[in-house]
Specification:
- The protein is an alpha+beta fold.
- It is built from 13 helices and 17 strands.
- The structure holds zinc ion.
- Zinc ion binds next to loops.
Protein backbone atom coordinates (compact mmCIF):
# COMPACT_ATOMS: atom_id res chain seq x y z
CA UNK A 1 0.00 0.00 0.00
CA UNK A 2 1.43 3.33 -1.02
CA UNK A 3 0.10 6.78 -0.27
CA UNK A 4 -1.11 8.42 2.84
CA UNK A 5 -2.77 6.85 5.84
CA UNK A 6 -6.09 8.70 5.78
CA UNK A 7 -6.79 7.79 9.42
CA UNK A 8 -3.67 9.64 10.48
CA UNK A 9 -3.80 12.47 7.96
CA UNK A 10 -7.51 13.37 7.93
CA UNK A 11 -7.94 14.65 11.49
CA UNK A 12 -4.63 16.52 11.44
CA UNK A 13 -5.45 18.24 8.12
CA UNK A 14 -8.90 19.21 9.42
CA UNK A 15 -7.36 20.62 12.60
CA UNK A 16 -4.85 22.73 10.66
CA UNK A 17 -7.50 24.08 8.26
CA UNK A 18 -9.79 24.96 11.19
CA UNK A 19 -7.04 26.58 13.26
CA UNK A 20 -5.73 28.70 10.38
CA UNK A 21 -9.26 29.74 9.41
CA UNK A 22 -9.80 30.93 12.99
CA UNK A 23 -6.55 32.95 12.81
CA UNK A 24 -7.53 34.94 9.72
CA UNK A 25 -11.23 35.84 9.85
CA UNK A 26 -12.74 38.76 7.90
CA UNK A 27 -16.25 40.13 7.37
CA UNK A 28 -16.66 37.26 4.92
CA UNK A 29 -14.22 34.37 4.48
CA UNK A 30 -10.57 34.82 5.46
CA UNK A 31 -7.99 37.54 4.81
CA UNK A 32 -4.30 36.77 5.01
CA UNK A 33 -2.52 39.77 3.50
CA UNK A 34 0.86 39.27 1.80
CA UNK A 35 3.81 40.25 4.03
CA UNK A 36 1.54 40.95 7.00
CA UNK A 37 1.54 39.93 10.65
CA UNK A 38 -1.39 37.57 9.98
CA UNK A 39 0.72 35.80 7.37
CA UNK A 40 3.61 35.56 9.85
CA UNK A 41 1.27 34.21 12.54
CA UNK A 42 0.08 31.47 10.16
CA UNK A 43 3.70 30.54 9.35
CA UNK A 44 4.47 30.45 13.09
CA UNK A 45 1.47 28.21 13.72
CA UNK A 46 2.49 25.82 10.92
CA UNK A 47 6.01 25.77 12.35
CA UNK A 48 4.60 24.75 15.75
CA UNK A 49 2.67 21.90 14.09
CA UNK A 50 5.85 20.82 12.28
CA UNK A 51 7.95 20.93 15.46
CA UNK A 52 5.31 19.04 17.45
CA UNK A 53 5.58 16.24 14.86
CA UNK A 54 9.35 16.08 14.96
CA UNK A 55 10.10 18.06 11.79
CA UNK A 56 12.85 20.62 11.32
CA UNK A 57 11.85 24.24 10.65
CA UNK A 58 13.97 26.82 8.80
CA UNK A 59 13.43 30.30 7.40
CA UNK A 60 15.01 31.64 4.19
CA UNK A 61 16.22 35.20 3.58
CA UNK A 62 12.81 36.23 2.20
CA UNK A 63 11.16 34.91 5.41
CA UNK A 64 9.39 32.01 3.73
CA UNK A 65 9.26 28.92 5.96
CA UNK A 66 10.77 25.46 5.22
CA UNK A 67 9.95 22.14 6.86
CA UNK A 68 11.85 18.84 6.54
CA UNK A 69 12.55 15.51 8.18
CA UNK A 70 15.49 16.06 10.58
CA UNK A 71 17.71 13.68 8.56
CA UNK A 72 17.05 15.67 5.37
CA UNK A 73 17.57 19.18 6.71
CA UNK A 74 21.09 19.46 5.27
CA UNK A 75 20.39 17.47 2.07
CA UNK A 76 22.55 18.38 -0.92
CA UNK A 77 19.65 17.79 -3.33
CA UNK A 78 15.95 17.62 -2.58
CA UNK A 79 12.40 17.78 -3.94
CA UNK A 80 10.17 20.67 -2.85
CA UNK A 81 6.46 20.55 -2.05
CA UNK A 82 5.33 24.15 -1.90
CA UNK A 83 2.45 26.61 -1.97
CA UNK A 84 1.45 29.91 -0.37
CA UNK A 85 -0.20 30.89 2.91
CA UNK A 86 -1.51 34.35 1.97
CA UNK A 87 -5.06 34.80 0.63
CA UNK A 88 -6.96 37.46 -1.28
CA UNK A 89 -9.12 39.84 0.84
CA UNK A 90 -12.24 37.99 2.00
CA UNK A 91 -10.97 34.87 0.26
CA UNK A 92 -11.33 31.16 0.90
CA UNK A 93 -9.34 29.10 3.37
CA UNK A 94 -7.93 26.46 1.00
CA UNK A 95 -6.37 28.46 -1.84
CA UNK A 96 -2.64 28.07 -1.14
CA UNK A 97 -2.91 26.69 2.40
CA UNK A 98 -3.99 23.26 1.09
CA UNK A 99 -0.67 22.79 -0.73
CA UNK A 100 1.37 23.57 2.38
CA UNK A 101 -0.73 21.18 4.48
CA UNK A 102 -0.11 18.50 1.82
CA UNK A 103 3.63 18.92 2.29
CA UNK A 104 3.36 18.65 6.06
CA UNK A 105 1.20 15.50 5.78
CA UNK A 106 3.68 13.84 3.41
CA UNK A 107 6.55 14.45 5.86
CA UNK A 108 4.58 13.60 8.99
CA UNK A 109 3.17 10.49 7.24
CA UNK A 110 6.67 9.31 6.30
CA UNK A 111 7.81 9.80 9.89
CA UNK A 112 4.83 8.06 11.47
CA UNK A 113 4.57 5.08 9.11
CA UNK A 114 8.27 4.58 8.50
CA UNK A 115 7.67 4.54 4.71
CA UNK A 116 10.74 5.84 2.91
CA UNK A 117 10.76 8.77 0.52
CA UNK A 118 12.90 8.08 -2.53
CA UNK A 119 14.71 11.38 -2.13
CA UNK A 120 14.90 14.12 0.53
CA UNK A 121 11.83 16.37 0.50
CA UNK A 122 11.49 19.91 1.82
CA UNK A 123 8.18 21.68 2.28
CA UNK A 124 8.03 25.36 1.40
CA UNK A 125 5.39 27.70 2.86
CA UNK A 126 5.56 30.81 0.71
CA UNK A 127 4.44 34.36 1.38
CA UNK A 128 2.83 36.80 -0.99
CA UNK A 129 1.50 34.79 -3.94
CA UNK A 130 -1.74 36.71 -4.44
CA UNK A 131 -1.66 39.86 -6.58
CA UNK A 132 -4.61 41.35 -4.66
CA UNK A 133 -2.37 43.16 -2.17
CA UNK A 134 0.42 44.71 -4.28
CA UNK A 135 -0.94 44.19 -7.81
CA UNK A 136 1.91 41.81 -8.56
CA UNK A 137 1.89 38.06 -7.95
CA UNK A 138 4.26 35.21 -6.92
CA UNK A 139 6.26 37.61 -4.70
CA UNK A 140 7.62 34.97 -2.28
CA UNK A 141 8.82 32.60 -4.99
CA UNK A 142 10.15 35.44 -7.16
CA UNK A 143 12.21 36.80 -4.24
CA UNK A 144 13.57 33.32 -3.60
CA UNK A 145 14.56 32.57 -7.20
CA UNK A 146 15.97 36.00 -8.08
CA UNK A 147 13.09 36.82 -10.43
CA UNK A 148 11.73 39.88 -8.59
CA UNK A 149 11.64 42.94 -10.86
CA UNK A 150 12.08 46.58 -9.76
CA UNK A 151 8.39 47.12 -10.57
CA UNK A 152 7.45 44.46 -8.03
CA UNK A 153 9.43 46.06 -5.19
CA UNK A 154 8.01 49.53 -5.96
CA UNK A 155 4.42 48.21 -6.15
CA UNK A 156 2.08 49.92 -3.70
CA UNK A 157 -0.04 48.10 -1.12
CA UNK A 158 -3.77 48.43 -1.86
CA UNK A 159 -4.52 49.42 1.75
CA UNK A 160 -1.78 51.66 3.10
CA UNK A 161 -0.09 52.74 -0.15
CA UNK A 162 3.38 51.76 1.09
CA UNK A 163 5.72 49.85 -1.24
CA UNK A 164 6.34 46.12 -1.16
CA UNK A 165 9.94 46.98 -0.39
CA UNK A 166 8.76 48.80 2.76
CA UNK A 167 6.53 45.95 3.83
CA UNK A 168 9.32 43.40 3.34
CA UNK A 169 11.83 45.54 5.22
CA UNK A 170 9.35 45.92 8.09
CA UNK A 171 9.46 42.13 8.48
CA UNK A 172 13.27 42.28 8.65
CA UNK A 173 13.90 41.11 5.09
CA UNK A 174 17.11 42.45 3.49
CA UNK A 175 15.95 43.99 0.18
CA UNK A 176 19.42 44.44 -1.36
CA UNK A 177 19.98 40.92 -2.77
CA UNK A 178 16.33 40.67 -3.86
CA UNK A 179 16.51 44.02 -5.71
CA UNK A 180 19.77 42.86 -7.33
CA UNK A 181 17.94 39.80 -8.68
CA UNK A 182 20.22 37.44 -6.77
CA UNK A 183 18.59 34.04 -6.05
CA UNK A 184 18.35 33.42 -2.30
CA UNK A 185 18.55 29.64 -2.79
CA UNK A 186 20.54 27.44 -5.14
CA UNK A 187 17.74 26.26 -7.44
CA UNK A 188 20.07 23.68 -9.05
CA UNK A 189 19.83 21.73 -5.77
CA UNK A 190 16.05 21.37 -6.21
CA UNK A 191 15.32 18.16 -8.14
CA UNK A 192 11.63 19.03 -8.67
CA UNK A 193 8.89 21.35 -7.41
CA UNK A 194 5.44 19.93 -6.63
CA UNK A 195 2.36 21.95 -5.72
CA UNK A 196 -1.12 20.81 -4.78
CA UNK A 197 -3.80 23.46 -5.25
CA UNK A 198 -7.58 23.60 -5.33
CA UNK A 199 -8.93 23.85 -8.86
CA UNK A 200 -10.26 27.38 -9.38
CA UNK A 201 -12.59 26.44 -12.22
CA UNK A 202 -15.48 23.97 -12.55
CA UNK A 203 -13.91 21.13 -14.61
CA UNK A 204 -13.28 18.51 -11.91
CA UNK A 205 -16.71 19.06 -10.34
CA UNK A 206 -18.38 18.64 -13.75
CA UNK A 207 -16.36 15.53 -14.56
CA UNK A 208 -16.80 14.05 -11.03
CA UNK A 209 -13.05 13.60 -10.57
CA UNK A 210 -11.46 14.24 -7.15
CA UNK A 211 -7.98 15.24 -8.35
CA UNK A 212 -5.94 15.75 -11.53
CA UNK A 213 -2.40 16.45 -12.74
CA UNK A 214 -1.72 19.89 -14.29
CA UNK A 215 0.10 20.03 -17.62
CA UNK A 216 0.57 23.81 -17.99
CA UNK A 217 -0.28 27.18 -16.47
CA UNK A 218 -1.90 30.09 -18.32
CA UNK A 219 0.23 33.20 -18.60
CA UNK A 220 -1.20 36.69 -18.48
CA UNK A 221 -0.57 40.37 -18.86
CA UNK A 222 -2.33 42.94 -16.76
CA UNK A 223 -2.73 46.61 -16.16
CA UNK A 224 -3.68 47.56 -12.65
CA UNK A 225 -5.23 50.93 -13.51
CA UNK A 226 -5.58 52.13 -17.11
CA UNK A 227 -6.64 55.78 -17.19
CA UNK A 228 -8.89 56.94 -19.98
CA UNK A 229 -8.85 60.73 -20.03
CA UNK A 230 -11.48 62.78 -21.87
CA UNK A 231 -13.23 66.05 -21.25
CA UNK A 232 -15.75 66.82 -18.49
CA UNK A 233 -18.99 68.72 -19.14
CA UNK A 234 -22.67 69.15 -18.36
CA UNK A 235 -24.62 65.98 -19.16
CA UNK A 236 -27.49 67.98 -20.69
CA UNK A 237 -25.67 70.80 -22.43
CA UNK A 238 -22.94 69.13 -24.50
CA UNK A 239 -24.11 67.58 -27.82
CA UNK A 240 -22.72 64.17 -28.79
CA UNK A 241 -20.45 65.54 -31.49
CA UNK A 242 -18.60 67.70 -28.97
CA UNK A 243 -18.13 65.03 -26.34
CA UNK A 244 -14.95 63.26 -25.35
CA UNK A 245 -16.53 60.88 -22.87
CA UNK A 246 -13.98 58.49 -21.33
CA UNK A 247 -16.69 56.18 -19.96
CA UNK A 248 -18.06 55.45 -23.43
CA UNK A 249 -14.51 55.17 -24.75
CA UNK A 250 -13.75 52.49 -22.16
CA UNK A 251 -17.01 50.69 -22.95
CA UNK A 252 -16.09 50.80 -26.64
CA UNK A 253 -12.66 49.30 -25.91
CA UNK A 254 -14.07 46.50 -23.73
CA UNK A 255 -16.70 45.67 -26.36
CA UNK A 256 -14.00 45.38 -29.04
CA UNK A 257 -11.89 43.16 -26.77
CA UNK A 258 -14.94 40.99 -26.05
CA UNK A 259 -15.63 40.56 -29.80
CA UNK A 260 -12.04 39.53 -30.36
CA UNK A 261 -12.23 37.09 -27.42
CA UNK A 262 -15.25 35.36 -28.96
CA UNK A 263 -13.46 35.14 -32.30
CA UNK A 264 -10.37 33.58 -30.69
CA UNK A 265 -12.50 30.99 -28.87
CA UNK A 266 -14.41 30.17 -32.07
CA UNK A 267 -11.12 29.49 -33.84
CA UNK A 268 -9.94 27.13 -31.08
CA UNK A 269 -7.71 29.54 -29.13
CA UNK A 270 -7.46 29.85 -25.36
CA UNK A 271 -8.26 33.24 -23.82
CA UNK A 272 -9.93 34.87 -20.84
CA UNK A 273 -10.10 38.59 -20.12
CA UNK A 274 -11.49 40.62 -17.24
CA UNK A 275 -11.88 44.22 -16.22
CA UNK A 276 -12.61 43.76 -12.53
CA UNK A 277 -12.03 47.25 -11.14
CA UNK A 278 -13.80 50.11 -12.96
CA UNK A 279 -14.63 53.58 -11.73
CA UNK A 280 -14.86 57.33 -12.07
CA UNK A 281 -13.93 59.38 -9.02
CA UNK A 282 -17.17 59.73 -7.00
CA UNK A 283 -15.76 62.80 -5.23
CA UNK A 284 -15.46 64.73 -8.52
CA UNK A 285 -18.01 63.10 -10.77
CA UNK A 286 -21.78 63.20 -10.64
CA UNK A 287 -24.91 61.89 -12.30
CA UNK A 288 -25.31 65.10 -14.31
CA UNK A 289 -21.67 65.44 -15.37
CA UNK A 290 -19.72 63.88 -18.19
CA UNK A 291 -16.72 62.42 -16.40
CA UNK A 292 -13.33 63.71 -17.48
CA UNK A 293 -11.59 60.49 -16.53
CA UNK A 294 -12.22 56.80 -15.78
CA UNK A 295 -9.83 54.19 -14.45
CA UNK A 296 -10.09 50.44 -15.07
CA UNK A 297 -8.05 47.28 -14.57
CA UNK A 298 -7.40 44.77 -17.34
CA UNK A 299 -6.35 41.13 -16.96
CA UNK A 300 -5.78 39.03 -20.10
CA UNK A 301 -4.78 35.35 -19.88
CA UNK A 302 -3.94 32.50 -22.25
CA UNK A 303 -1.92 29.30 -22.28
CA UNK A 304 -0.49 30.51 -25.58
CA UNK A 305 2.28 33.11 -25.60
CA UNK A 306 1.33 33.84 -29.24
CA UNK A 307 -2.25 34.71 -28.35
CA UNK A 308 -1.03 36.93 -25.51
CA UNK A 309 1.27 38.75 -27.95
CA UNK A 310 -1.59 39.09 -30.42
CA UNK A 311 -3.89 40.54 -27.74
CA UNK A 312 -1.16 42.92 -26.55
CA UNK A 313 -0.85 44.31 -30.08
CA UNK A 314 -4.63 44.33 -30.64
CA UNK A 315 -5.19 46.28 -27.41
CA UNK A 316 -2.75 48.99 -28.55
CA UNK A 317 -4.34 49.20 -32.00
CA UNK A 318 -7.85 49.53 -30.60
CA UNK A 319 -6.80 52.14 -28.04
CA UNK A 320 -5.18 54.16 -30.84
CA UNK A 321 -8.33 53.86 -32.96
CA UNK A 322 -10.65 54.91 -30.11
CA UNK A 323 -8.31 57.78 -29.22
CA UNK A 324 -8.67 59.01 -32.82
CA UNK A 325 -12.45 58.58 -33.03
CA UNK A 326 -13.44 59.83 -29.61
CA UNK A 327 -10.79 62.40 -28.78
CA UNK A 328 -9.75 60.76 -25.53
CA UNK A 329 -6.42 59.34 -24.49
CA UNK A 330 -5.38 56.15 -22.66
CA UNK A 331 -2.56 55.94 -20.13
CA UNK A 332 -2.01 52.28 -19.35
CA UNK A 333 0.69 52.56 -16.70
CA UNK A 334 3.12 49.65 -16.39
CA UNK A 335 2.18 46.26 -17.83
CA UNK A 336 2.49 43.40 -15.32
CA UNK A 337 3.34 40.29 -17.35
CA UNK A 338 3.52 36.61 -16.37
CA UNK A 339 4.63 34.13 -19.02
CA UNK A 340 2.72 30.85 -19.55
CA UNK A 341 4.53 27.91 -17.94
CA UNK A 342 4.67 24.31 -19.13
CA UNK A 343 4.92 21.67 -16.45
CA UNK A 344 7.76 19.13 -16.68
CA UNK A 345 6.72 16.11 -18.79
CA UNK A 346 8.67 13.58 -16.69
CA UNK A 347 7.23 14.81 -13.39
CA UNK A 348 3.73 14.94 -14.91
CA UNK A 349 4.16 11.34 -16.12
CA UNK A 350 5.39 10.24 -12.69
CA UNK A 351 2.39 11.80 -10.96
CA UNK A 352 0.01 10.31 -13.55
CA UNK A 353 1.58 6.88 -12.89
CA UNK A 354 1.03 7.34 -9.14
CA UNK A 355 -2.74 7.82 -9.60
CA UNK A 356 -3.64 4.13 -10.27
CA UNK A 357 -1.46 3.11 -7.30
CA UNK A 358 -3.92 4.90 -5.02
CA UNK A 359 -6.96 3.68 -6.97
CA UNK A 360 -7.53 6.72 -9.23
CA UNK A 361 -7.91 6.93 -13.01
CA UNK A 362 -5.10 9.13 -14.40
CA UNK A 363 -6.44 12.53 -15.53
CA UNK A 364 -4.64 15.70 -16.59
CA UNK A 365 -5.71 19.28 -17.36
CA UNK A 366 -4.40 22.84 -17.88
CA UNK A 367 -4.41 25.47 -15.16
CA UNK A 368 -6.33 28.67 -15.83
CA UNK A 369 -4.82 30.52 -12.91
CA UNK A 370 -1.20 31.30 -12.11
CA UNK A 371 0.75 29.60 -9.33
CA UNK A 372 4.19 29.68 -7.72
CA UNK A 373 4.94 26.51 -9.74
CA UNK A 374 5.18 28.79 -12.81
CA UNK A 375 8.05 30.70 -11.16
CA UNK A 376 9.96 27.53 -10.24
CA UNK A 377 9.46 26.26 -13.80
CA UNK A 378 10.78 29.60 -15.08
CA UNK A 379 13.79 29.25 -12.75
CA UNK A 380 14.60 25.94 -14.45
CA UNK A 381 13.23 23.58 -11.78
CA UNK A 382 11.17 20.66 -13.21
CA UNK A 383 7.71 21.44 -11.83
CA UNK A 384 4.22 19.96 -11.76
CA UNK A 385 0.95 20.43 -9.94
CA UNK A 386 -1.95 18.43 -8.60
CA UNK A 387 -5.40 20.02 -8.67
CA UNK A 388 -8.10 19.08 -6.19
CA UNK A 389 -11.82 19.33 -6.98
CA UNK A 390 -13.35 22.45 -5.45
CA UNK A 391 -16.80 23.95 -5.77
CA UNK A 392 -17.63 27.65 -6.29
CA UNK A 393 -14.23 28.72 -7.67
CA UNK A 394 -11.75 30.52 -5.48
CA UNK A 395 -10.79 34.05 -4.41
CA UNK A 396 -14.15 34.08 -2.59
CA UNK A 397 -15.37 32.84 0.80
CA UNK A 398 -17.45 30.05 -0.77
CA UNK A 399 -14.68 27.85 -2.13
CA UNK A 400 -15.46 24.32 -0.98
CA UNK A 401 -12.99 21.45 -1.01
CA UNK A 402 -13.93 18.12 0.56
CA UNK A 403 -11.35 16.71 2.93
CA UNK A 404 -11.59 13.34 1.15
CA UNK A 405 -10.69 14.92 -2.20
CA UNK A 406 -7.81 16.75 -0.55
CA UNK A 407 -6.52 13.45 0.84
CA UNK A 408 -6.72 11.89 -2.65
CA UNK A 409 -4.61 14.74 -4.06
CA UNK A 410 -2.16 14.50 -1.19
CA UNK A 411 -1.94 10.71 -1.61
CA UNK A 412 -0.95 11.15 -5.27
CA UNK A 413 2.05 13.27 -4.24
CA UNK A 414 2.83 11.01 -1.32
CA UNK A 415 2.70 7.85 -3.46
CA UNK A 416 4.78 9.53 -6.16
CA UNK A 417 7.53 10.45 -3.68
CA UNK A 418 7.61 7.16 -1.81
CA UNK A 419 9.82 4.23 -2.67
CA UNK A 420 7.72 1.60 -4.41
ZN1 LIG B 1 -3.29 30.03 -4.82
Amino acid sequence: MTGLSHNLAGPLAQQIFDDVRAMSPDTAGVSRPAYSEVETAVLDYLSDVALAHGLRVEEDAAKNRWFSLPEHAGAERYAVIGSHVDSVPEGGNFDGLAGVVTGLLVLIGARQTGRRLREPVKVLALRGEESAWFGSCYLGSKALTGLMGPGDLAALHKGDGRTLSDHMAALGIDIQPIAAGRPLIDTSRISQYLELHIEQGPLLVQRAIPAAIVTGIRGNFRFRAIRCIGEGGHSGAVPRAYRHDPVLAMADLLTRLDDSWLHILQTGGDLVLTSGVVGTDPARHAIARIADEITFSLDIRSQSAEILDHMRAYLREEMDEITRIRGVRFETGPEIPAAPAMMDATVVEGLMAAMPRIGQEPFSMASGAGHDAAIFAQAGVPSAMVFVRNRNGSHNPHEAMDLDDFLVGTSIISAYLEEE
